[in-house]
TrEMBL record:
Organism: Cellulomonas rhizosphaerae
Renumbered residue ranges of the record's region Disordered: 1-25
Miscellaneous information on this protein: Reaction proceeds by a ping-pong mechanism involving intermediate methylation of a conserved cysteine residue.
Catalytic residues (positions): 112 (proton acceptor), 366 (s-methylcysteine intermediate)
Pfam families, per database record: Radical_SAM, RlmN_N
Localization: Cytoplasm
Radical SAM core domain residues: 118-360
Requisite cofactors: [4Fe-4S] cluster
Binding site for [4Fe-4S] cluster: 132, 136, 139
Binding site for S-adenosyl-L-methionine: 187-188, 221, 244-246, 323
Domain of life: Bacteria
Name of the protein this chain belongs to: Probable dual-specificity RNA methyltransferase RlmN
GO MF, one example: tRNA (adenine(37)-C2)-methyltransferase activity
Length: 375
């Protein structure tokens, strides 16, 4: 198979509406929040009260803000907490502990989240763009094209809604905290770098100015946007970096992941290793196993050799049985082939764990629900 070079414009949406979300409290720095409330005729300390309601109590509903007068809270909520997400559809699996939600945005655009509750943690997979412009052939979101980037507040609202549902005991198992966030939903996170970093800073900021999460529990995924990977290494926030590789050879990867024609396999792996060198954080290599396409034993050997060529102990590999997209020619590898692929990687000394594929019965791969609604 040979890949055809693709010219990619990563700077702007490729199609669809280009609505700009209304400014939200989350889009403002703590200092800007003070300026916003005083500009509305309120005392500066109201900004901290609002932050406490949003980040600690997980509420933007003015009726819950009983420490403010009704007139003040209605005015502040109307100006600073415009509705950004509307729950359009919810599907559950695994006894209700996996929840996939289709959200309508202010302009009618659609994004998805997947909340997965485990015994000792709760993980939310969030979206960073409406669609995606990178056109990976096996990806439901890639088939949609890119409509627009999400704002920081639109991304953070996905997190708050999940944290609120967990805290309120709406997910089976009783009240719980959201412990992990992964940028592995719709979109290429590093193509929306400014909003992604605004979100990360909000997630890790101590309460009441943010959610107070550990950077180690936040994973940012990329298909290999090398300049942004290098920039992320210098941010000083040690999130986990996940590189979606899917093939160790340029010929196949350029077909599966067209951005490989701009930054090839070795450049992407070098950038991932640089991230490890700068941050000390082990990098995850994501690898969707596709039957008879990229699941050959020799490709596992080549991947192991390439990763070890940079050093030892810097990487962890997550093979992922492909969640098939309706109408796609590709499907998941046979279990025996999957086992052999994993064994080959481990033989090279690469720590390898098959990724949990929760939610397959509810179209768990992000983009499938939004695409279905558009049909």
């Amino acid at each position: 198979m040979t890949g055809t070079p693709v010219r990619l414009d990563l700077s702007s949406p490729t199609r669809g509406p280009r609505g700009k979300p209304p400014q939200h409290f989350v889009d403002l720095t703590p200092e800007e929040r003070i300026a916003a409330v005083t500009g509305l005729g309120e005392k500066p300390f109201r900004a901290k009260q609002l932050a406490t309601h949003y980040f600690t109590h997980l509420s933007s509903d003015p009726s819950t803000m009983t420490d403010l007068s009704k007139a003040s809270r209605d005015k502040l909520a109307e100006s600073l907490f415009p509705p950004l997400l509307t729950n359009a559809r919810t599907l559950t699996a695994d006894g209700g502990t996996t929840v996939k939600t289709l959200w309508h945005l202010f302009d009618g655009a659609k994004v998805e989240t997947v909340l997965m509750r485990y015994k000792n943690r709760s993980t939310l997979c969030i979206s960073s763009q409406v669609g995606c412009g990178l056109a990976c052939g096996f990806c439901a979101t890639g088939k949609m094209g890119l409509t627009r980037n999400l704002s920081t507040a639109e991304i953070v609202e996905q997190v708050r809604e999940a944290a609120r549902a967990l805290g309120a005991g709406e997910i089976p198992g009783g009240p719980a905290r959201l412990t992990n966030v992964v940028f592995m939903g719709m979109g290429e996170p590093l193509a929306n770098y400014k909003a992604i970093m605004g979100t990360v800073r909000t997630l890790v900021a101590p309460t009441p100015d943010g959610f107070g999460m550990s950077a180690r529990n936040i994973t940012v995924s990329t298909v290999g946007m090398v300049p942004a990977m290098l920039k992320l290494a210098d941010e000083g926030i040690p999130v986990t970096l996940a590189l979606s590789l899917h093939a160790p050879d340029d010929e196949l990867r350029s077909e599966l992941v067209p951005v490989n024609t701009r930054w090839d396999v070795d450049e992407a792996i070098d950038a991932a290793y640089h991230y490890f060198e700068v941050t000390g954080r082990r990098v995850s290599i994501e690898y969707a196993l596709i039957r008879d396409i990229n699941d050959h034993a020799w490709r596992a050997d080549l991947l192991g050799e390439k990763l070890n060529a940079r050093g030892k102990g810097w990487v962890h590999c997550n093979p992922i049985p492909l969640n098939p997209v309706a109408g796609s020619k590709w499907t998941a590898s046979d279990p025996g082939v999957e086992d052999e692929f994993v064994a080959r990687l481990r033989a090279h000394g690469i720590p390898t764990t098959i990724r949990d594929t929760r939610g397959s019965e509810i179209d768990g791969a992000c983009g499938q629900l939004a695409a279905e609604e558009d049909e």
